[in-house]
Structures are given as C-alpha cells and as structure tokens.
UniProtKB/TrEMBL annotation:
It comes from the Bacteria. InterPro entries: Gfo/Idh/MocA-like_OxRdtase_N (IPR000683), Gfo/Idh/MocA_oxidrdct_glycsds (IPR050463), GFO_IDH_MocA-like_dom (IPR055170), NAD(P)-bd_dom_sf (IPR036291). Pfam families: GFO_IDH_MocA, GFO_IDH_MocA_C3. Residues 7-121 form the Gfo/Idh/MocA-like oxidoreductase N-terminal domain. This is Gfo/Idh/MocA family protein. SUPFAM superfamilies: Glyceraldehyde-3-phosphate dehydrogenase-like, C-terminal domain (SSF55347), NAD(P)-binding Rossmann-fold domains (SSF51735).
C-alpha cells in the first residue's frame, strides 16, 4: 500500500471486541472504517449511534461482496472465522482476526493453507504479542538474565464463567466455541510458544460444568522445559498468572500486564518502560504488516499451533 493512503477496513462482528476495535479504528490515523456487519440489529444500532460514519449491514457476506476494502477485522464467533477469513483472503484482502483461530482444526489448517497460497497479510489478535511485560521477559531471555529456564506455569481462576463483560455473547459460555481455555489460556500459551518454541502435549485433562470447562490441567514440553497449566471456575479471586522459572531469575506476569521478577528471596515489581500494548498498538502493527514491514503480531500459523494445544484438552477429555 502507498505510505499516505488510509487502509479501508471492514469490521465483521460488533460484540465486545468488534465494538472496541471499531472505536479504535475510527480514531486511528492509518484506517478508515468503510463498513461493519453484525446479524444483531441491537449491536448494529449501538455501533451506529457511537459511530455514524461507516455503512452498516446485517450480513457479513454483503460486506465482503459489495464494498471496496483493503482489509477485514473478524470478531464474530470462532466457528465463523474460517469462512469469512478464507473468503476475504481469496479476494485479496488482508485479515486481522480475533483468537482463537478457529474451533475445528481442519478449518484452522485451511486458513493457514490459504494464507500461504494467496500471500495475503494475516494476523491474530493475541494480546501478549506486544504487552510491555511480555516484551520485557523476551528481552531478559535474549540477554540471558533468567539463566537456564527450568519451567513455565500458567494458573487461572474464575469465580464465574463467562465473565460479566461477556455475558451478552452466549457462545463464550458454551462448550462448542467458548470456555476459558480458548478465551484466556490461548493468549498465554501463545506467549510460551513465542518465547520457548513449539509446545508438545504430554497430558491434558478437562472436566465440564453445565456448559464450558470448569477445570483444566495440562502438561506440555517446550523442548525439555516442562510447561504446566491449571485453570478453575471456582470460588476465589479472579487470577491470571504466568510464571517462567529460571536458574538465575524468574519472571511472573499477573493480571495481563504487571511484571515481577523473583530472585532467591522474593518477588519484586518491575517498572516497565515499554508501552502496555493495546488494540491501538496492534492495529498499528497490522498497518505495518500491510506495508511489508516486520511486526510483533501473531500470524495464522502461530494461531494454529495454539489451537492444537487448546483443542487437545477437548479431544482428550475424561468422560
């Protein structure tokens, strides 16, 4: 794309993330939101009231067929990602999609295959791709501050699922597309994959409540480094914790963006110079990708590796 031209963007899905990205893109100097689509009339009317400039349609197929675009952002339920992404890529459009990549592994593999065949820009919105805490840990590993990595631990607790801000998205609560493994753990599995290399499942166990999973335990290997995951929907404070244990120094990310380092005595908070990372910064990275520049964003191939890890829980569940 020409340096000065705005990227003509279509937004598919106007739920929590779609509405947020629409708002961010409307204010971003590199983007022009041309059209947004959602089958919910209420979602469309809320978006139109906040941002009357773009066109709005109920059918994403109309968005793809009838509007001149450079890129699409996909925030519809996961089971629809592959259909819209493949159509867009075959039409020559760049695609920025929400995670998970897909739910069906064959559809995720198709997305990666089509992306490679068409050469179109493709990206997945993993928040840990540019969070300051994640970048700081990557730098610590690069410079050897951690010493030998002994292991990684992921811990999550949710007093309720879905979380209150997602209650309107019914699919988030369901086993077919939702659950905390796809919605939350995927971000941290991506981070581990990026820092330590591809993970191989050793053992996964999951139990289900009325809808999505209520417990999950897993062991993976990154080379010879053990990676453990435990998650619960249970009484207690909402917890998001990722810890890398090193022989010389350990690192812990809590609540998505707070970084701590641990010596042989205690955990110490780290003041971060890097930006926190946001939808704005990742949209900026997407614009960079469309100019052919290197970016921090995950691509569909990254997303497929994470999808295999997450779906391993569901394919190997205990009856």
């Amino acid at each position: 794309m020409e340096m000065g031209s705005k990227i003509r963007l279509g937004v598919i899905g106007l739920g929590v993330m779609g509405a947020e990205m629409l708002d961010v893109a409307q204010r971003h100097p590199r983007f022009e939101v041309v059209v947004a689509a959602d089958p919910s009339e209420q979602a469309v009317e809320r978006a139109r009231a906040a941002h009357p400039g773009p066109a709005y349609v109920g059918d994403p197929e109309e968005l793809l067929a009838r509007h001149a675009l450079d890129a699409v952002y996909i925030a519809s339920p996961p089971a629809t990602h592959a259909h819209y992404a493949v159509r867009a890529m075959k039409a020559g459009l760049a695609v920025f999609a929400e995670k998970p990549l897909a739910v069906d592994l064959a559809e995720g593999e198709e997305m990666v295959t089509v992306a490679a065949a068409t050469g179109t820009v493709n990206a997945l919105n993993f928040v840990m791709s540019d969070r300051g805490a994640a970048l700081a840990v990557a730098e610590a590993l690069r410079t050897g501050q951690a010493g030998t990595v002994r292991g990684v631990e992921l811990r999550f607790t949710f007093p309720e699922w879905p979380r209150s801000f997602q209650e309107s998205a019914g699919w988030v609560a369901g086993r077919a597309q939702g659950g905390f493994l796809r919605e939350v753990a995927s971000h941290y599995l991506f981070l581990t994959d990026r820092l330590l290399g591809p993970l191989s499942p050793v053992h996964t166990h999951v139990t289900y409540g009325a809808a999505a999973e209520d417990t999950a335990h897993g062991l993976f290997l990154a080379g010879d480094v053990p990676v453990t995951l435990s998650g619960h929907v249970a009484a207690g404070p909402e917890t998001y914790e990722w810890t890398l244990y090193g022989s010389d120094r350990s690192y812990r990310i809590t609540d998505w963006s707070r970084l701590w380092h641990g010596d042989h005595r205690d955990w110490t908070p780290v003041d971060l110079a890097e930006p926190r990372g946001s939808e704005h910064t990742r949209l900026s990275e997407f614009a960079r990708a469309m100019r052919g520049e290197e970016t921090t964003l995950a691509d569909f191939a990254d997303g497929l590796r994470v999808q295999h890890l997450v779906e391993h829980f569901h394919r190997h569940r205990t009856p």
